[in-house]
Amino acid sequence: MNVDAHDLIVLHKNVNRLVGKEIFWNNSFANNDREIMKSIENLIENKLLMQTNKFEFSIPKINNDELRGILKEHNLKIGGNKTELISRIYDNLENITSLELPYVYIATENGEKILNDTEYLLSFDVEPNRFGVSINRAYYLAENCVSEHCNDKVVEIYKFEFQRDYENEEIQLAGLHKLDCLISHYNFNVKDYDNARKYLNILYYFRLKYFLKEITESMYSWYYDDEGNLKIDRIKNVISTRFEGVYEKLIFSQNLSNESIFKLFKDDTKAYNDLEDEITEKYINYIIAVVKKENETKAASEFEKVLTSNYALDKEEFEEEYDYRSNFITTDISSLKDMDPQIEVEIDISNGKINFFLDDDSLDTLIKKSE
Questions:
Q1: Which of 16, 187, 214, 366 could crosslink 196 through cysteines, CB 3.0-4.6 Å?
Q2: Distance of alpha carbon 289 from alpha carbon 299, whole angstroms
Q3: What per-residue string of b and e applies to 86-104 under the rule 16 or more CB within 10 Å gives b?
Q4: Which of 180, 210, 229, 218 is nearest to 283 (CA)?
Q5: Distances from the Cα of 22 to the Cαs of 18, 28, 30, 36, 227, in angstroms?
Q6: At a CB cut-off of 8 Å and minimum separation 6, what does 367 contact?
Q7: 3-state secondary structure of 121
Q8: DSSP tag of 313
Q9: How far, in Å, CA of 38 to CA of 162, rounded?
Q10: Phi and psi at residue 23, in whole multiples of 5°?
């Protein structure tokens, strides 16, 4: 079968549509778009799609006013709903002359099987997505890496991609987005709230892990002010909740305590979790406080205290950096040109390295401007 994932999306979107009314994946009219029509032709050549104007396929595509017009033209009763109008036309086909029925795209027997087997593709973006899974990638994985007997190919594709990202240490951007998609599928499409919670907790864990890595390794992180204090408002942005409905079920429907929810978090993340209980518990308590809209400031403060005590960089590093930077002035070439400075050039004859030196008057001018 010589069709690709894009062709299959075109099949799903255009089966049972009128010929000449083809649509894109986003349900807007294709208006004879070259790529869409090329896919249509390919589907027909591969005997997955066909055109027909047989009565049973075509007549439902005619609107009620047109159906009544046909009946009126042949002096037949025009009352009733669409089903009754079509039935009346069918019963009187021998007496209805010049009935022009529109052509419709229908799936062949093999096409119906392909539609059923590839329905999972509709859960993936048609256009390539930087962090998600494109339909071409999803189709490849379904054909080569996922068991054809699995119950939910969407789930297995996202799990496969997430595990791949984890093993290749690419979780921070691509992997987290794929977790978002997996949680959304569990939560909204299949209503599997236990798995939605499990993967939400895994998402929370990785967000916390990379946040801690950032504040631990870099003083240039936007989470610090110039004096080395953590900015709690920015921290809140990072640990803000996602899919609040999942935790609302735990809190309001199941009436679970903070301790029970934290235990679920530990169980759900045990395959990955290498963080201390103290920081993860304060983290989960803050998320619960946000969802409940109770004691948020207190929970955030407790989380910040643990961060400051055990993870934040030493303020001495910021003081040293401040002392170092105080010996420098930042400017640009345009400003230097306006000053018309005298610049000496020193060249190391052993390696060709070049050093530039500004004259004293120009340097004094820059210092005064920076004060």
A1: 187
A2: 7
A3: bebbeeeeeebeeeeeebb
A4: 210
A5: 7, 9, 6, 8, 61
A6: 329
A7: helix
A8: P
A9: 34
A10: -130, 160
For residue 127, is pLDDT > 80? no
User: CA distances (Å), 295 to each of 242, 244, 247, 278, 288, in order?
Assistant: 19, 17, 16, 18, 9
Q: What is the pLDDT of residues 14-38, one digit of tens each?
A: 999 999 999 998 889 999 999 999 9
Q: Which are the contacts of 283, defined by CB distance < 8 A and separation ≥ 6?
A: 204, 208, 239, 303
* C-alpha–C-alpha distance, residues 122 and 137, integer Å: 13
Residues 234, 240: Cα–Cα separation, whole Å: 10
Q: Residue 264, by phi and psi: left (phi above 0), alpha (psi -120 to 50) or beta?
A: alpha
pTM (predicted TM-score): 0.80
DSSP state letter for 23: B
Query: Residue 321 and residue 329: Cα distance in Å, rounded?
Result: 14
| Burial bucket for residue 156 (CB in 10 Å: 0-12, 13-18, 19+) | middle
